[in-house]
Amino acid sequence: MYQEERIQAILKYLNNHKRISIEEICNLCNVSRDTARRDLVKLEKRKDILRTRGGALLPSIKTEIKSYKDRLFTDSEVKKSIGKLAASLIKENDKIIMDTSTTVQTCSEFINVDTCTIITNSINQADILSNKSQKIRVHLLGGELNKEQRLLYGPPVISMLSNYYVDKLFIGSCGLSGKGIMTVFDEDGFVKKKMIEQAEEVILLCDSSKFGKEGFFRVADLSKIDILITDKLPDKSLLDIFNNYKIKIILTK
């Protein structure tokens, strides 16, 4: 079977099952694991798939498959207003976890305390924070690097997280619905899950364009959110759900 024939077979499988593993490609196309990986690399370059640890998935919302840089400049003014407001909640000596969300990155840019400790798996966040006060301690979680999304992930990241207990978690989302906090990338989703477990207070930074959207992977249900910082209120049905979970909503001005 030629590579293009294998690629079509992989895409057909994905259209039916939404995800595929390396082992399934080997069985489907009768090829080695190395050949299966090369096929996934080509599909990833064509932006037809999202690669995951051990395979690939077919995204449910293709418009959300953007590089970190592209996401950073999408609705950038709204993100800045949310990030600035979030930064105002950080107090001296706070212990904080920050995820890899581009909105959370803007929070890093506006931090205005002299002393705090921040844990993150975002190489962009670590770079920004390195230019802040010398008394701001930064712990960069180590793991496998997703170059396009600028994040570190995998079992080492989750293992390191289990050693930290913090006052606040600042987390982003690609979608927020009655089903909970959603993300496109499952490898990032597992890290976010662990971050939530380690925080006393979970603060979600999410602009109104994400309301009602559902990604591939559910990070957590709404009961895990303490504070939502956003630019507009959702429609009544979703707002009622937020109120039922006693989520405090803070709006930008």
Describe this structure in words.
- This protein has helices spanning 3-17, 22-29, 33-45, 68-72, 76-87, 102-109, 123-129, 155-161, 186-197, 236-244, and strands spanning 19-21, 50-52, 55-57, 95-98, 116-120, 136-140, 144-146, 151-153, 166-171, 175-177, 180-183, 199-205, 217-220, 227-230, 248-251.
- The chain starts with a helix and ends with a strand.
- The protein is 38% helix and 24% strand.
- The protein has 2 domains: 3-58, Arc Repressor Mutant, subunit A (Orthogonal Bundle); 69-251, Rossmann fold.
- The mean pLDDT is 89.
- Helix 5 (76-87) crosses helix 6 and helix 6 runs parallel beside helix 7.
- It contains 10 helices and 15 strands.
- A 7-stranded parallel beta sheet has the order 6-5-4-9-12-14-15, with helices on both faces.
- A hairpin with a 2-residue loop joins strand 2 and strand 3.
- The longest helix has 15 residues, at 3-17.
- The protein is α/β, with parallel strands linked by helices and 253 residues long.
- It holds the Pfam family HTH_DeoR.
- Keywords: DNA-binding, Transcription, Transcription regulation.
- This is Transcriptional regulator GlcR.
- Residues 3-58 form the HTH deoR-type domain.
- It comes from Clostridium oceanicum.
Summarize, please.
The protein has helices at residues 3-17, 22-29, 33-45, 68-72, 76-87, 102-109, 123-129, 155-161, 186-197, 236-244, and strands at residues 19-21, 50-52, 55-57, 95-98, 116-120, 136-140, 144-146, 151-153, 166-171, 175-177, 180-183, 199-205, 217-220, 227-230, 248-251. It is α/β, with parallel strands linked by helices and 253 residues long.
